[in-house]
Amino acid sequence: MSRRYAALVVPLILFALVGCVDAPDAIDQTPTAGYTPTPTPATPTASATPGPTSEPFAIDCSDLISAAEIYEYNPNFGGVEGWVPSPGTVAGDGVAAQGTACRWQNQSSGATIDVSVAHLLGPGLSAKRAEVAASSTPAPWAIEGYFLANGGPGVAQAFTGEYWITVESTTFFAAEDVAPLIEYISGAL
Q1: What CATH number has the domain bearing residue 117?
Q2: Which terminus, N or C, of the chain has the lesser number of Cβ atoms within 10 Å?
Q3: What is the mean pLDDT of the segment spanning 145-157?
C-alpha cells in the first residue's frame, strides 16, 4: 500500500468506525440487576398559600365603650342590639376581617356611630396600615390614627398593636370629634 493511498484510506476507516458507536442519547439506561438509582432531592419551594391575615376577635360592645363612656361622650347615644354592618362599609370590612362591630344611635337625631375592631396579622396588618395611610390624613391621637371626611360621614381608623379600629359617623367633622371614642376603644384592647 502506498503512503498516499494509506493517507486517504485510514481517515475513511476511522470515520466509518466512529459512525458505529452509539450516541450518548441512545445508550441503554436500563438499570442492571441490583442497581438502585439515587433520587434527585426536591428543591424546597415557598408555599403558594399565604398565612391568615386576621384572627377572630369578639368583644361585647359594652366592653368596647362602656355605658358611662358613651354617656360622657354624648348622653343621647344608646347601643343598638343585633346591628350588622353592610358589606363594603368600613365596619363591614372590619367584620369581614373576623372582627366585631357595634352601633350607637342618637335617640334625638337618629345619627349613628359605627365601630369595628379586627385583629390583623403580619401581612394583613401591614397592608391595611399602608392602605389607610395612603387614603387618609394622620390624626393627632395618642395612637397611630387617620381621619377622612369627604362630604360624607367622617371616618376614623386607628391602629394599636395588631388591632385595627374603625369609627364612622355623620357627626364627625374633624379628628378631634372622634378622639374620645378612639381613646375609650384603645383602652379596652
Answers
A1: 3.40.1000
A2: N
A3: 93
- Report the C-alpha gap between 186 and 78 in whole angstroms: 20
3-state secondary structure 33-45: CCCCCCCCCCCCC
Q: Give Cα separations from 166 to 35, 44, 90 (angstroms).
A: 67, 40, 7
> How much is the pTM?
0.72
Q: Report the alpha-carbon distance of residue 142 to residue 145 in Å, rounded.
A: 8
> Residue 162 domain-assigned?
yes
Asked, for residue 16, whether it belongs to a domain, the answer is no
The answer as to whether 155 is a domain residue is: yes
Of 55, 186, 169, the residue nearest 118 (C-alpha) = 55
Residue 11 — pLDDT band, cuts 50, 70, 90? very low
Beta bridge partners of 107: none
More confident residue, 78 or 9: 78
